[in-house]
């Protein structure tokens, strides 16, 4: 027994100490850029991987040790090891495997960790205002995996790129937009693999800002003409540049910038109503071509006749389709010179809309009977706030129906211009959801959309993200009708921060990184909008038709055109009014009419003399009749089909009524 035991022991000892080796590891290299777990297969000769317990595997490079997180032994000569890529250094590593049976085994220089590097970035130059695709090439990388982030850096200035996309293992594309004139000069490129590893390329991009005019518009609280102390940026202020009547608006930070050809320019701010320019000079003379880049063209605004209060409100909605939900934004804006706080009331019940629970943003003070009540605090001069809600359009609504909702913003007491504290939103029901849509307020009366010639027109352009990814830029292009005055342009609200300019009568509103998800996943959160007001030019003839259509481009792709809206400008003399004498009743028949119309006033004194006037849709008077008693028969056989207006009044000017007529 002793001899047998001794023989077994000697045989085992001899078997365990001689002939074992590590022969191979597959794969034999790994990209440091890859941060996902990976597996290697280790092959051995004369090994006993399955018999040994507590097998350990690791790589070593000097004192740098990287251990496998898991080891499996499917056979005596094969082991599988999983690593998490914790290789701090590149280069060759020794492979180690140990267990109680085989002991420690080593395969020198078995594994190569390859360091990543950036080789090139194209293009190498760009100009202010450009949006372009950059293509980055590297070696020792795998851009098709992981979550890559791209940016350019110049000290504290950082330009983040959007939509990084792996074109291949060694090529990466991203979208870059240059919108800040402070971003001029040379930039280094940085790419991050999402696991804490970064690689760079020095002097990868040079940004030119030749021909840039830039500055800031601010509310000058103390009126000293300097941006200091309690002064605040004034967003959506309008700066005019001549010659050419070029208009550019300030962003949320009160900054504006525009790139122009070489030449001599005058730069001035157009103060909003109730404001004046407090800074000096109140206009700048600039010679581009000599200066190249002209920063610091700043303007201070202060109340011209003492502080005043003026808050207003507007309502914006996505296209309304029967039975479907629509997104509504209510914008509160401060046109006054004082910081204000108050309440906002939005009534959707009057339009027959049904609130979708959980969609009120921000959280309301109360929701009851279709009325939503919010609070707003510390709204600065020139500032605005957005409130959002979703509601379902009545299922029995027909295309062409008008849904009427209202909004009221307080405080009203002390508001110097309370007329804009309340708004009625006339929302036309459409037959289908459209990707680009335009509305105008007021819609106007009748099929010709008759509108007071002195009334400002408020346009809303809404759109949804038709791209398959988050867009980096949405551009609205809107050729303003020649009857509109670009100097009166006022951006009221937008779903995300925008920059705008008007050049040669064409409006451009640019959203940069608006964070709109694709419609396929975002639903109503994929919608964006911009709302602006503009006034007709003074002295237009009655009957002028003002039409407007916009186009929306996402990431520089194919433009989507909106529908066309129009208004016919008419004199207020033919506006519908309430009868001043409640005992009178005017009967008009038939209406719609064909060849003859009859008017009769009931309840009036028999000796009263009445006058009837009939107008076409442009405000041109077509008929005038007088009579006693007040019964008129009007032959209309020669009038073409369409919309008409009438006004019935006494000879001493007391109105019986006014209204609309429709001829078939």
Count of runs of 4 or more consecutive helical residues: 2
What CATH calls the topology of the largest domain is: Immunoglobulin-like
Q: Report on the biggest sheet.
A: 9 strands, antiparallel
Shape: elongated
CATH architecture of the largest domain: Sandwich
Q: Quote the beta fraction.
A: over 45%
Alpha-carbon Rg, integer = 37 Å
Structure overview:
With 664 residues, the protein is mainly β. The chain has six domains: 16-113, Immunoglobulins (Immunoglobulin-like); 117-208, Immunoglobulin-like (Sandwich); 212-303, Immunoglobulins (Immunoglobulin-like), CATH 2.60.40.10; 313-432, Immunoglobulin-like (Sandwich), CATH 2.60.40; 434-570, Immunoglobulin-like; 574-663, Immunoglobulins (Immunoglobulin-like, Sandwich), CATH 2.60.40. The protein has two helices and 57 strands. The strands form twelve sheets. The protein has a nine-stranded antiparallel sheet with strand order 26-24-21-22-44-45-42-48-49, with no helix packed on it. Mean pLDDT is 87; it is low at 1-17 and 573-580.
List the helices and strands and how they pair.
Elements (H helix, E strand, L loop, with lengths): L1 H16 L3 E6 L2 E3 L6 E8 L10 E6 L2 E4 L2 E6 L2 E6 L7 E9 L3 E12 L2 E6 L2 E3 L3 E9 L9 E6 L2 E4 L1 E5 L4 E7 L7 E8 L5 E11 L3 E8 L12 E2 L4 E5 L3 E4 L5 E5 L3 E8 L4 E3 L5 E6 L4 E2 L4 E5 L7 E7 L2 E2 L3 E10 L5 E8 L6 E2 L10 E3 L2 E9 L4 E9 L9 E9 L11 E9 L5 E6 L8 E3 L4 E8 L8 E7 L4 E11 L3 E6 L2 E7 L6 H4 L4 E10 L8 E4 L2 E4 L5 E2 L3 E6 L14 E5 L6 E7 L7 E7 L4 E7 L3 E5 L6 E9 L4 E9 L1
Parallel strand pairs: 2-9, 11-18, 19-27, 19-28, 30-38, 40-50
Antiparallel strand pairs: 1-3, 3-7, 4-5, 4-8, 6-7, 8-9, 10-12, 12-16, 13-14, 13-17, 15-16, 17-18, 19-20, 19-23, 21-22, 21-24, 22-44, 24-26, 25-28, 29-31, 31-36, 32-35, 32-37, 33-36, 34-35, 37-38, 39-41, 41-46, 42-45, 42-48, 43-46, 44-45, 47-50, 48-49, 51-52, 52-55, 53-54, 53-56, 56-57
């Amino acid at each position: 027994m002793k001899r047998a035991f001794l023989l077994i022991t000697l045989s085992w000892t001899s078997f365990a100490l001689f002939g074992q080796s590590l022969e191979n590891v597959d794969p034999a290299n790994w990209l440091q850029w890859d941060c996902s777990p990976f597996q290697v297969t280790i092959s051995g000769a004369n090994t006993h991987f399955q018999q040994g317990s507590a097998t350990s595997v690791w790589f070593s490079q000097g004192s740098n040790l990287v251990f496998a997180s898991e080891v499996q032994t499917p056979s005596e000569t094969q082991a599988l090891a999983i690593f998490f890529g914790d290789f701090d250094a590149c280069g060759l590593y020794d492979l180690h495997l140990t267990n109680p049976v085989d002991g420690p085994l080593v395969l020198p220089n078995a594994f190569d960790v390859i360091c990543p590097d950036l080789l090139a970035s194209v293009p190498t130059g760009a100009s202010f205002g450009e949006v372009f695709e950059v293509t980055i090439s590297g070696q020792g990388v795998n851009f098709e995996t992981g979550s890559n982030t791209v940016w350019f850096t110049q000290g504290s200035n950082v330009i983040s790129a959007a939509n990084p996309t792996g074109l291949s293992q060694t090529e990466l594309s991203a979208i870059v937009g240059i919108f800040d004139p402070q971003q001029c000069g040379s930039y280094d490129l940085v790419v991050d693999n999402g696991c804490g590893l970064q690689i760079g390329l020095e002097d990868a991009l040079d940004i030119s800002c030749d021909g840039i005019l830039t500055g800031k518009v601010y509310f000058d609280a103390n009126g000293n003409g300097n941006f200091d102390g309690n002064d605040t940026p004034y967003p959506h202020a309008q700066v005019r540049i001549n010659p050419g009547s070029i208009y550019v608006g300030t962003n949320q930070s009160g900054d504006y910038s525009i790139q122009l050809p070489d030449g001599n320019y005058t730069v001035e701010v157009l103060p909003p109503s109730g404001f004046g320019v407090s800074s000096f000079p109140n206009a700048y003379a600039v010679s581009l071509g000599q200066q190249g880049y002209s920063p610091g063209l700043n303007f201070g605004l202060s109340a011209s006749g003492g502080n005043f209060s003026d808050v207003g409100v507007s309502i914006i909605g996505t296209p309304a389709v029967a039975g479907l939900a629509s997104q509504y934004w209510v914008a509160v804006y401060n046109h006054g010179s004082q910081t204000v706080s108050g309440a906002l009331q939005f009534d959707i019940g009057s339009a027959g809309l049904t609130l979708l629970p959980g969609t009120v943003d921000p959280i309301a003070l109360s929701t009851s009977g279709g009325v939503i009540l919010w609070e707003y605090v510390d709204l600065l001069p020139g500032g605005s706030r957005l409130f959002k809600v979703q509601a379902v359009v009545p299922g029995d609504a027909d295309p062409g129906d008008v849904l009427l909702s209202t909004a009221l913003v307080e405080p009203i007491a002390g508001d110097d211009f309370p007329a804009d504290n309340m708004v009625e939103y006339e929302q036309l029901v459409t037959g289908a959801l459209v990707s680009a849509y335009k509305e105008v307020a007021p819609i106007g009366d009748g099929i010709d959309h008759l509108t007071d010639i002195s009334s400002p027109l408020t346009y809303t352009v809404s759109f949804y993200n038709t791209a398959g990814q988050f867009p980096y830029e949405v551009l609205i292009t809107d050729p303003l009708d020649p009857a509109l005055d670009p100097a009166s342009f006022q951006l009221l609200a937008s779903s995300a921060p925008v920059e705008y300019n008007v050049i040669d009568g064409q409006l451009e509103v640019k959203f940069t990184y608006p964070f709109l998800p694709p419609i396929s996943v975002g639903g109503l959160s994929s919608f964006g909008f911009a709302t602006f007001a503009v006034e007709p030019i003074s002295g237009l003839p009655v009957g002028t038709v003002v039409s407007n259509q916009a186009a929306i481009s996402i990431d520089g792709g194919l433009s989507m055109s909106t529908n066309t809206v129009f208004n016919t400008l008419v004199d207020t003399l033919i506006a519908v009014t309430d009868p001043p004498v409640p005992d009178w009743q005017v009967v008009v028949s038939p209406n719609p009419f064909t060849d003859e119309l009859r008017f009769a006033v009931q309840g009036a004194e028999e000796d009263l003399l009445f006058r009837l006037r009939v107008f076409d849709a442009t405000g041109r008077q077509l008929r005038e009749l007088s009579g006693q008693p007040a019964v008129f028969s009007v032959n209309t056989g020669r009038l073409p089909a369409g919309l008409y207006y009438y006004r019935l009044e006494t000879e001493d000017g007391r109105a019986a009524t006014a209204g609309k007529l429709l001829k078939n």
